[in-house]
Amino acid sequence: MKRNGSRNCLNRRSRFGSRERDWLREDVKRGCVYLYGAETTTATTTTTTSSSSSDVHLVLCTVETPASEICAGEGKESLYLQLHGDLVSRRLEPTERPLQIVYDYLSRLGFDDPLRIQEEATNPDLGCMIRFYGEKPCQVDHLDRILLSGIYNVRKGKTQLHKWAERLVVLCGTCLIVSSVKDCQTGKMHILPLVGGKVDEVKRRQYSLAFSSAGAQAQTYHVSFETLAECQRWQRQASKVVSQRISTVDLSCYSLEEVPEHLFYSQDITYLNLRHNFMQLERPGGLDSLYKFSQLKGLNLSHNKLGLFPVFLCEISTLTELNLSCNGIHDLPSQIGNLLNLQTLCLDGNFLTILPEELGNLQQLSSLGISFNHFSQIPEVYEKLTTVEKVVMAGNQLEVLNLGVLNRMSHIKHVDLRMNRLKTMVIENLEGNKYITHMDLRDNQLTDLDLSSLRSLEQLHCERNQLRELTLSGFSLRTLYANSNRLTAVNVYPVPSLLTSLELSRNLLECIPDWACEAKKIEILDVSYNLLTEVSMMFPLRILSSLSLRKLMVGHNHVQSLPVLMEHIPLEVLDIQHNLLSRLPDTLFSKALNLRYLNASANSLESLPSACTGEESLSMLQLLYLTSNLLTDQCIPMLVGHPHLRILHLANNQLQTFPASKLNKLEQLEELNLSGNKLKTIPTTIANCKRLHTLVAHSNNISIFPEILQLPQIQFVDLSCNDLTEILIPEALPTTLQDLDLTGNTNLVLEHKTLDIFSHITTLKIDQKPLPTTDSSVTSTFWSHGLAEMAGQRNKLCISALAVDNFAEGVGAAYGMFDGDRNEELPRLLQCTMADVLLEEVQQSTNDTVFMTNTFLVSHRKLGMAGQKLGSSALLCYVRPDTADPTSSFSLTVANVGTCQAVLCRSGKPVSLSKVFSLEQDPEEAQRVKDQKAIITEDNKVNGVTCCTRMLGCTYLHPWILPQPHISSIPLTIQDELLILGNKALWEHLSYTEAINAVRHVQDPLAAAKKLCTLAQSYGCQDNVGAMVVYLNIGEEGCTCEVNGLTLPGPVGFVSTIKDPPKPTTPSSSSGIASEFSSEMSTSEVSSEVGSTASDEHNTIGLDSGLLPRPERRCSLHPTPTSGVFQRQPSCATFSSNQSDNGLDSDDDQPVEGVITNGSKVEVEVDIHCCRGGDLENSPTFKETSPTRCPEEHARGLSFGIRRQNSMNSGILLPVSKDKMELQKSPSTSCLYGKKLSNGSIVPLEDSLNLIEVATEAPKKKTGYFAAPTQLEPEDQFVVPRDLEEEVKEQMKQHQESRPEPEPSEEDRTEALEEFDTAL
Length: 1320
Known about the structure:
Layout (H helix, E strand, L loop, with lengths): L9 E4 L4 H8 L4 E7 L19 E7 L4 H8 L5 E4 L5 E3 L6 H12 L4 H8 L8 E4 L6 H4 L2 E11 L8 E8 L2 E6 L8 E5 L4 E4 L6 E5 L7 E5 L3 H16 L4 E3 L20 E3 L24 E3 L20 E3 L20 E3 L20 E3 L20 E3 L7 E3 H5 L6 E3 L7 E3 L11 E3 L7 E4 L7 E3 L7 E5 L5 E3 L7 E5 L7 E3 L10 H5 L5 E3 L14 H4 L6 E3 L19 E3 L12 H4 L5 E3 L23 E3 L10 H4 L7 E3 L10 H4 L7 E3 L20 E3 L19 E3 L20 E3 L10 H6 L5 E3 L10 H4 L3 E8 L8 E9 L4 E8 L5 H20 L3 H15 L3 H4 L1 E11 L8 E8 L3 E6 L2 E4 L10 H9 L20 E2 L12 E7 L3 E7 L1 H6 L2 H8 L5 H14 L6 E8 L50 H8 L38 E7 L19 E4 L2 E8 L5 H4 L13 H6 L30 H4 ...
Helix pairs in contact: 3-4, 15-16, 22-26
Pfam family, one: LRR_1
Protein name: PH domain leucine-rich repeat-containing protein phosphatase 2
Subcellular location: Cytoplasm; Membrane; Nucleus
């Protein structure tokens, strides 16, 4: 191990050994850096491949070790840093410290513990996010534009005066380069421009070509090749160069610090793209050499981290387009006024606060981009730039909108002030502005907006402000977008005669403005999510009677009725969902003949209007959504009047039958949703719907499988949560069938032959039949879940879910939802890995914030190369026993990134547990992204990729996109009913309250999840939608421990009798269970006092003792104690009558309450718990006997991954409630070979341990339960009279106090024991 001075730099290690790990543990500032070999790819390769393991080795160093020291130890000239797998790799300066760079990266990612940062830095998987190279990874062929190269015989000139000589010939760009072989890089090079020249075959010499340049002084080079194929390849490539002018060079993302030298010999380059490199200012081939491109017109230098404006660029007078975005530039030089031909200047994403006056000299400048800088006002230089028509200043720091400044700029027509800090507006004079036609004020803080002075305004965007009142001029107004404000009044004068689109959704409007009803050309009107009522004056007839209106959105209001139509209208789309409608206008379908889309879901409709006025229907309706109404079978005949109907949703109504004759006439039907009704059958006439591809009929009473497997285009069938018993399979299944859901049909039995036939289906969902030892009453006691995922109108499902009802050895649960938006790879990866990561992190930390954060960050790393370009929203919920709140049994911890959300139903009210990380809904995150100089496009996406600001994956968007989650924890109570997890599409169409109310009274969680997805689709969702519903039963009535009453198998020929629960006359300190003895007495005290040796009662064939220990069943509310865990537990102790010092008379015939006499033994119920402080230290020390494990236990104990039980949990007689007696017949309660716990795993049987051994272990336990086994061998019956009960207690207590006090154990000295009381 090589140590380099005080920095302790250790070099050249291929792997970690114990010596290296010991060295790292000595100081958290020590670590390692993985050094990769160079990666070189050819021109045909689009991405680099990972280096093999032989090209990677680690260098041990400290955070103070500079790059120069590592280079010296490795024999390298420089180190290169590569982030997120990009081709871009930055050369480190000699003084930069690689390990500190890694530590800083992990810290920004979200890790905050120095030890954890050190651990993560040593993980080789981190190379997918950050890695170091000893050589520069590059693509040589692309960098130099080398098309062909080789060593050939060359002769210069057309005559034969020159001799043939061996030379290196390179066809690069548009030039032929001939140089000496010996000194090809430093010697003399001859450059022959080929543009406009020619390439001819040399007839006198085999396989030779003559390359000639253009012009009067043209030169010629003859090149002789060795083979015909090689000659033809050069001729084809050179002919393309000669005939085509290659004027654009794209060298973006190549880690360049200088321009390749060969490019300077390409005289025709007019556009040079050097985006996302590391170009230097003053060095050979640097930016100061760009003047050599005499014809250069376009130059892109964005994302080069220049820091300063390159003054040398001002000497390239031919430039017409210059892009210097995202370079950290703080000011512009005055020399920029020399670029008189400049037409486009992009300076977005810098730190500019002012613009120089010399910029006004650029009279040809037509486009100036200064978005996402630090301007606090509109620069005055705009007044001089008379050819600029747009003020593009999104993402700056403007707080005041000064219309007077804009009035002085008569040439400005478009103003983009998105995402500023606008709060007020200033009007210097009453003079109107006749020039501005488009204005974008989205995502500001405006409360009132008066733009009536902008008389030429055609389009206004003012979404997501805090507007209460809006005033505009209607002379030229064509489109108005004012969604997501607090508008109560919108004033437009005069009436906008040119208005075509008006969007006022998500405001506080109580009526539609009068001027909107008078607009003659309005085509789109969206007033959804407002406070509109049913009064005719508030909802004018003239809106529906408009001769221009094509689309009307009035959903989510309080409309109780619609006016009757008297004339024909051109309306095509009508959305009136979530209102209070009890009926639709009778003339709706007869007057709105162009109506193609109608959504009337979530109303109170009891009937439908007729579509037929005569013998033939003229209806053009194609999409009809009527979910969540009060429709009955009487409405079905009305559907026949729509022969063009393609999509029909009738879910969650009161349908009992669907007449076969009516369904037979809907021949154009493609999608049919009948879920949530009371249907018993699907008509056989569905076979006539030849175009049907989707049938959703879950949550009905269907017992006969419909005849849909003969439909030629059927793709998706959902018949879950019905009463199916069998399926009649045709001879051949349709090849189009992709998804068949049969879950929730408890009586359905599929034969192996049927399953084989269904094997070609992409997704087949059926219930998993429980194993013979499965006790479902235990596994689903406290929580049970249902999951539904629907692809909608997309071809693939990009949602995955995680559901583990028995997590962490059965003492908790884990649920997750992952939405990849457009990719399905990342959600599937997270589904497979995140539970394992959570389990590892939970074992390392008990702090919910720590282990949840680390779970997300580690999962982010484990995505590897797939996470470099792809991203996914993630939601993770973890239910665990609550150790912080003694009044709660469980706590719920929720973490999320992206747009997936979780909502808890508490006493019927929604409790939001998540945070939506999107630019539109989280201003703080939007500001963070702006401060880090990301470019937010007009569709509100970071760099045009995603609207999320925190995701797993998308590492190439770091640091704008982070994986650090939002975390919330809440103790679960008996008032908590259910938990809903959903992706973005679900919550966009359902409010928290509606989702809770929709599923509160649904018995089956699967049916509840299905219902939520169905509602979302019926409300207009066309994207992937996923929902998970977790029913919670957190309360003592849900306990299924044997402590609460499951019958125990006794010896052969004897069934253990379980008495009723004791009367609560003397409740215990915390659990409320009565105890006949003092709760301060331990089992060891009772055992030593009476002098008995306890053993298990259970009888097993094959054991010499005739006894078989049987593990006690525990539920998730009362988990089995683990090593070092001890809790109070009612127990049974057996006393022998041989002991006479207890002062009890065996002739007493009055039994003591709480004492059971059975033959020759007496069973006394004792309450044993762990006390704080000295009570446990006073417990006597007993000799521990090692149990003999049966071979079966060794064979089965570890195979199920369950924490091993001990004899503390065996052979116990416990009180049982009467409502649990039916569980006695459960196979898991009577099985002598294994026990099914609440986590669904089988617990191997334990060997019997006596009471002495158990009592010795008891003081070491902090939680869990304690069970004292009973004795089968006492010879005499021992009865404690009621009147002697107190005397018995007193004598036993005195006897114990007379014993010498034992020395406390080492564990007791170091850790104070606390009392943990868990309610039973």
